[in-house]
Amino acid sequence: MNGLTRVVFLAVLTILAVSSAGHAADVDRTAVDFVPPSEIKWVRNAAATNESAVLFGDPRQPGPYVVRLKWLPGSMSRPHFHPNDRFFVVLSGTWWMGTGEKFDPENTVPVPAGSYVIHYAGKVHYDGAKAEETIIQVWGMGPATSTPWGGGPATSTPAEKR
User: Where are the domains of the chain?
Assistant: First the structure.
């Protein structure tokens, strides 16, 4: 192969490689499915302390569910418990957790992104974000309910955050 032929051949190979790499393959959505971040639908809670996005199932109904929670800075839940075990991964930010019946955000434990967490059924705890937005993903078996400890709200309101 002479020099000019070799250059043309390499140029054609490069064009073919680049053009085929830029074309995304189709996937059978009945075999695997996904939701890109831009299509996740976030819903803010009534207390304006967090947003949630249901990714799978219905956490209000019996059966498995997956929910992504976005804790807004300076927002924490109040002591509460759940009827079922719940499983979490911290996706971004630092999630702060405390246990017990007394709400004491100064004595919470930081849980960094990448951590795996279990909230055991019937155990009183509280959690949330301090200085930064924190995104966690939770899964478990529904119905996913929170019972406030001592009859108060399970989540702080904006006035309580001040």
Answer: 42-161
Q: Which two tokens stand for residue 124?
A: 């009183």
> 42-161 belongs to which homologous superfamily?
Jelly Rolls (2.60.120.10)
CA distances from 2 to 6, 13, 18, 40, 158 (A): 6, 16, 24, 55, 75
Sign of CA dihedral 90, 93, 94, 96: negative
Structure tokens at 27: 């996937």
* CA 109/CA 128 separation, integer angstroms: 11
Write the pLDDT tens digit of every residue in 69-121. Answer: 999 999 999 999 999 999 999 999 999 999 999 999 999 999 999 999 999 99
Within 8 A by CB and 6+ apart from 98, the residues are 104, 105, 107, 108, 109, 125, 126, 127
Q: How many CB atoms lie within 10 A of CB 161?
A: 15
What is d(CA 68, CA 135) in angstroms, rounded to the nearest whole number? Answer: 7
Task: Quote the pTM value.
Answer: 0.76
